[in-house]
Amino acid sequence: MRMNSARLVYDSTLEHDLISCTALINGYSLERSSSREASELFSQIDRMGLGVDNVILSSMLNICANMASLSSGRQIHARALKSQSDHDVAFGNALIDMYGKSGELEDARRVFSEMQHKDVISWTSMIVNYGKHGHGNVAITLYEKMEDHGVKPNDVTYLSLLFACSHSGLTTKGLKVFNSMVSRQGIHPRAEHYSCVIDLLARGGLLEEAYDLACNMDVKPNKSLWGAMLGACRIHGNTFLGEVSAGYLFGMDPDLSVNYVVLANMYAAAGLWQDAWKTRKLLEQNSTKKFAGYSLV
């Protein structure tokens, strides 16, 4: 709604300059649903011969990342290289993000390596990319290099590291990262950090430890946390803690069907067919949000 109003003001203006165009495109880059409008405006800027700068190119790269449009992102990158102008850190960060979200990890790494100046966002973005692609050990190595270069990691850096460790099975290293965040950096964990640690423990089969942390941490557990617990209990066959986790989830959102699906699958895997049948019946009665791609079988 806010961008619609901004566009009305823009369209009512007789003369447009690069500043007004950049402001509008930057606004579009924050709204995933407005990517087409931003692309059309970018083409309009070309037709008007206004020229472009790093700010507008960075915003367009963010839009390409949101659209998962690798070809458009490459075109903007090539255009920036041809301009032979100096590119700031924000532009390099936008390139890393765009290539990472497009699955082009090597291109993201190359951009990162060629950047003369890097900030905490640069390092964190590459850690995010490695974590999402299952390269937890590489993410840890990059984090160590980051500290060697005197760049102080922030809470997002640690969240990305915990995610990387969790999805690469690096339980011990992940716990070391968490302890470093709290003791060395003095960063107070948010719910998202605790969720990652609990997921880390649960994926490693340390369900009792994960449950103890969920019950004793100093922030209120959320649906993501208990969902991670329930999923891990299904994988490791811990029906008792699975039922406890499901109870918390149903209390938070009784209509979310995926929780019934996971619980029923856990019962079925354990041979508890009566419980699985009861859960199916509850799903039929209460669920209005059946997720595609899940099966009760």
Fold and architecture overview:
- The protein has 297 residues and is mostly helical.
- Among the domains are: 1-83; 131-181.
- It has helices at 2-12, 18-29, 35-48, 54-67, 70-83, 89-101, 105-114, 120-132, 136-148, 155-166, 171-183, 191-203, 207-216, 223-236, 239-252, 257-269, 273-286.
- Helix 14 (223-236) runs parallel beside helix 16 (257-269).
- The chain is globular, with a radius of gyration of 23 Å.
- This is Pentatricopeptide repeat-containing protein.
- PPR repeats lie at residues 88-118, 119-153, 154-189.
- It comes from Iris pallida.
Ordered list of secondary-structure elements with their pairings:
Elements: H1 2-12, H2 18-29, H3 35-48, H4 54-67, H5 70-83, H6 89-101, H7 105-114, H8 120-132, H9 136-148, H10 155-166, H11 171-183, H12 191-203, H13 207-216, H14 223-236, H15 239-252, H16 257-269, H17 273-286
Helix pairs in contact: 1-2, 2-3, 2-4, 3-4, 4-5, 4-6, 6-7, 6-8, 7-8, 8-9, 8-10, 9-10, 10-11, 10-12, 11-12, 12-13, 12-14, 13-14, 14-15, 14-16, 15-16, 16-17
